[in-house]
From TrEMBL:
Major enzyme class: lyase
Organism for this UniProt entry: Tenebrio molitor (Yellow mealworm beetle)
Gene Ontology annotations for the cellular component aspect, listed alphabetically: plasma membrane
All copies of domain Guanylate cyclase, residue ranges: 68-208
Lineage, opening ranks: Eukaryota, Metazoa, Ecdysozoa, Arthropoda, Hexapoda
EC number, as in UniProt: 4.6.1.1
Subcellular compartments: Membrane
Classification via CDD domains: CHD (cd07302)
Iron-sulfur keyword on record: no
Family per record: Belongs to the adenylyl cyclase class-4/guanylyl cyclase family.
Catalytic activity: ATP = 3',5'-cyclic AMP + diphosphate
GO molecular function: adenylate cyclase activity; ATP binding; metal ion binding
The protein's name in its UniProt record: adenylate cyclase
UniProt keyword list: ATP-binding, cAMP biosynthesis, Lyase, Magnesium, Membrane, Metal-binding, Nucleotide-binding, Transmembrane, Transmembrane helix
Pfam families: Guanylate_cyc (PF00211)
Amino acid sequence: MQKAELELKSMQATRHTNMQLLINVLPEHVARHFLSRDYKNEVKTAVDLTHFCTVSQELFSQSRDSVGVLFATIPNFSKFYTEDKGIECLRLLNEIIADFDDLLDDERFVSIEKIKMVSPTATYMAVSGLNPTKPDPLTRDSPVHLCTLIDFAMALRERLDEINKDSFNHFDLRVGVAFGNLVCGVIGAKKPIFDVWGDTVNEASRMDSTGLTGQIQVPKETAQVLVRHGYEVRLRGLVKVKGKGLMETYFVLGKKLKKVRSCQRNFSNYKSLGAMVYAIAQNRKKFISHSYKSQLLATDLQDVVVGQFSLVEFRLDEFFVRVVRYSQSQDVRS
């Protein structure tokens, strides 16, 4: 009896390990597709990954709308690579890609899925908005994950700069992004591969290959979506794209900085809060009756101090005004 229990636990542990391996090979929502539904009875008998994939040979494909696709290439890596130092070059490339992969663990990039690494061009391919079970944490508005993909591209660029400093290299990053519809699916059983196809994928690839180092190039339609979501873009012009002809493309510069209006302008003519209040009181003393002084003075004080102090308390005795200003650290009385 004890032996049977040990064997059962061993099989369960093996099955769990194989399931984790499958999740590492395929996107999580795709892996769970194979781990659920009508496969339960077959999965129970599949004690190794090869057998599991064999019993799950059903074609998996999905059509997706409003998906972001990114191609990020290190164009000067091919010049860096030499046959006599091939192993060392690949070791460095592996470190770069591993660092790129680490960014996917950031909560900001939960809606992004790595697809593959394309060689020999040293191109990193990723998509956003593909997994319906992982909506962007900011909002359910579908184009927002495209903004996340742009932020991811900028994070890739920053990470590569850090690698350059540590390795004393000068690698550049060239990025192309497009937004639209595509088809995704799994090809193969014993060695399943997840990939994406469609015009959006081709367009993103062309935005990369025709782009400039250090820039994120997008087509006009993608640029319009980004502008609506607070990004700055710069028109590059018409670019000849294979299979597309001339296309109007843009470079993404980053998020627009919000202008912060300073409250200091209200105090520009006064050296202190006391001087400001004294001036208000003197003006009011000439033109208003005593019965309305408190109300009108309160209005003036609110106009000039709101937004500058967390709390302002004032009292009016005859023509003497006492203001108490509270701050988190101490009380200041004028």
